[in-house]
């Protein structure tokens, strides 16, 4: 993949493409008055349920999206994404994104404000229908509530270097990542660094480092005999993090290969992420037996496409968490470790339609091993933006 193509692929915008030190801002007169509207239909049948999952057993509506976007003028771009999900007899309507973004700032600088997907990690800032598997890895479902979106502001800069370098900072409300009742109004701060380049014409890579500071993440108060919220293994759906802490560190690496940079006919993607969470409980619990000091999670995955219509992938991941109970003046903690092995095969009717079959082996030391089979469809129509690297 050529350098110019890589930068466009990684830092794609609907109206702003940062290529080295040059920022190109095309203005589409018809888009200014006619927003791009798209729909993503996500449905499934599942014979079990994964831990900390939003998808229940049986027939269900997954992450179905209605999105609208447009240039507001030559200086700003706006986007809105609403999500429908079914849980039993109830259907939830959630506002996942509603933001404005600058188009004309100099030196590769960009600002986004409103509600948006955080840039932490590799997968989080991507819409879930672009994933190669039915659900996000157990690491994301445990530490980020599957995908972490919030209200706030972000600033990014792309440096004018041959090596792709993007640095970003965010300030967010942190309500979905809070473990206290009296939370700070600005509770989460993140910093991210992305590096990328080509190994050759056929292969390219990206490496990322992320840090999330959660002012309201440390568990500090527990009611006597109450079960803390750290890890919900009762299979109730949740959009918040299953366990929180003061500091979350992340590292990710992605390598993509396609003959001569042409991804249409065949390609291979290998990816991995590691996360470390510390500051999990207040210091007054540190003397209690088995009190967690830090927790870790990771996943590795490989997806191979051997034709425009067929692909297959394997993913393995683990995530540490805990359960806890108050007993008088002391806390009793139970360490948990979820392990998941996923195998999937997908048929693409076109670029806009996918039918996927996935098998997941779920293992947790506090329960018996589960085998979960999912049959899913993801269909899109209307405007459909380019996928991230």
TrEMBL record:
Top-level taxon of the source organism: Bacteria
Full protein name: Porin
Organism of derivation: Vibrio comitans NBRC 102076
């Amino acid at each position: 993949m050529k350098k110019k193509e890589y930068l466009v692929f990684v830092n794609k915008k609907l109206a702003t493409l940062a290529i080295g030190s040059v920022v190109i801002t095309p203005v589409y007169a018809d888009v200014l008055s006619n927003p791009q509207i798209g729909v993503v239909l996500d449905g499934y049948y599942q014979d079990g349920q994964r831990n900390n999952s939003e998808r229940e057993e049986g027939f269900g509506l997954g992450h179905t999206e209605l999105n609208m976007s447009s240039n507001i003028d030559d200086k700003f771009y706006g986007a809105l994404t609403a999500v429908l999900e079914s849980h039993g007899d109830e259907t939830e309507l959630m506002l996942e994104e509603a933001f404005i973004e600058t188009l004309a700032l100099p030196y590769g600088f960009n600002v986004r404000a409103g509600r948006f997907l955080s840039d932490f990690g590799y997968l989080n800032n991507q819409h879930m229908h672009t994933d190669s598997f039915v659900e996000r890895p157990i690491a994301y479902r445990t530490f980020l509530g599957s995908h972490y979106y919030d209200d706030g502001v972000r600033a990014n800069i792309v440096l004018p270097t041959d090596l792709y370098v993007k640095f970003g900072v965010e300030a967010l409300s942190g309500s979905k990542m809070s473990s206290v009742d009296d939370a700070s109004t600005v509770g989460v701060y993140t910093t991210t660094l992305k590096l990328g380049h080509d190994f050759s014409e056929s292969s390219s890579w990206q490496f990322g480092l992320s840090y999330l500071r959660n002012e309201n993440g440390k568990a500090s108060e527990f009611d006597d005999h109450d079960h803390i919220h750290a890890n919900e293994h009762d299979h109730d759906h949740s959009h918040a993090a299953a366990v929180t802490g003061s500091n979350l560190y992340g590292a990710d690496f992605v390598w993509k290969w396609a003959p001569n940079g042409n991804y249409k006919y065949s390609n291979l993607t290998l990816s991995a992420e590691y996360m470390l969470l510390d500051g999990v409980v207040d210091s007054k619990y540190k003397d209690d037996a088995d009190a967690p000091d830090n927790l870790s999670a990771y996943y590795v995955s490989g997806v191979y496409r051997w034709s425009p219509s067929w692909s297959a992938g394997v993913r393995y991941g683990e995530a540490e968490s805990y359960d806890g109970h108050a007993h008088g003046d002391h806390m009793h903690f139970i360490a948990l470790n979820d392990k998941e092995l996923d195998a999937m095969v997908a048929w693409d009717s076109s670029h806009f339609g996918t039918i996927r079959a996935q098998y997941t082996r779920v293992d947790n030391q506090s329960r018996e091993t589960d085998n979960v089979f999912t049959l899913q469809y993801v269909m899109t129509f209307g405007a459909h933006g380019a996928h991230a690297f």
